[in-house]
Amino acid sequence: MDTIAFPALAEADRRLPLYLTICGHWNNQEAIIREQGFTDYQWLQCVSGTGELFIGDARHIVKAGQGFLLLPEVPHRYWPMEEPWDVHFISFNGMIAETLLRQAGMMESGVYTTENSETIVSHMRNMYAMSQSDRSYLAIECSKLVYMFLLDLMKAAEAGAQSELTYSRLQPVFAYIEANMDKPVAIKELAACIGVTPQYLCLLFKKSVNMRPMVYVNRERINRSKELMFYESRIPLHEIARRVGFDSASYFSSVFKKQEGITPEQFKKLHGMR
């Protein structure tokens, strides 16, 4: 459900070390363009889907499990790429906001991978629930929640940075998969790309993308097949299956349905393709 709240703030509330200005959730985040930036600090946490973020001229992709920080007055724009782009968001300010963010290693606007993103989202939901309550000293109660949020964000970002290092190490494997999308690949080949055993490769994939290597391969094959169906809609499905490395159209359809919940034929019909 889409939600948004603007906690009422008196002048004295704005002298708190931290204070909450906006919080909420969009089931599918719409396009936002702010050429002059925004007045407060913002954190947006992606739950599902994929978004595109521009900070100045720098382009970033935001995926599930990642969040992005926007510092005050920094020009930015963002919109969904893969819908629904499910996003929780808060805006906050206060005299210690910058200090806490710097302690978390967040010294500039950008995208950050967070471990235990469920904890981050839980904090954001709690802030929204509190802002809707009739508690006395509401701004102070919200301030306490923002403080707890930033402390946990500090831990989540540090752990997420380690995950990013693992992801970077896997780049040769991802490149190999991309280059051999139309061929069968074995896990031994993938492990050889970075000189590790298949067992250790599985551990790296689990840490980085939370799935086994061959599950990742099939996911990428299915994503490529959807692109082919969009851009070359007259290609028969058995040819699409071959181009994305499946031995048979029936196995391709089985994997497609397991991942997408519908068959390739239903996918084409749903999107008005012949």
TrEMBL record:
Molecular function terms, GO-annotated: DNA-binding transcription factor activity; sequence-specific DNA binding
Domain HTH araC/xylS-type intervals: 171-270
Keyword list, A-Z: DNA-binding, Transcription, Transcription regulation
InterPro entries to which the protein is assigned, alphabetical: AraC-bd (IPR003313), Homeodomain-like_sf (IPR009057), HTH-like (IPR037923), HTH_AraC (IPR018060), HTH_AraC-typ_CS (IPR018062), Tscrpt_reg_AraC-type_HTH (IPR020449)
Protein name, as recorded: AraC family transcriptional regulator
Organism from which the protein derives: Paenibacillus protaetiae
Lineage of the species this protein comes from: Bacteria, Bacillati, Bacillota, Bacilli, Bacillales
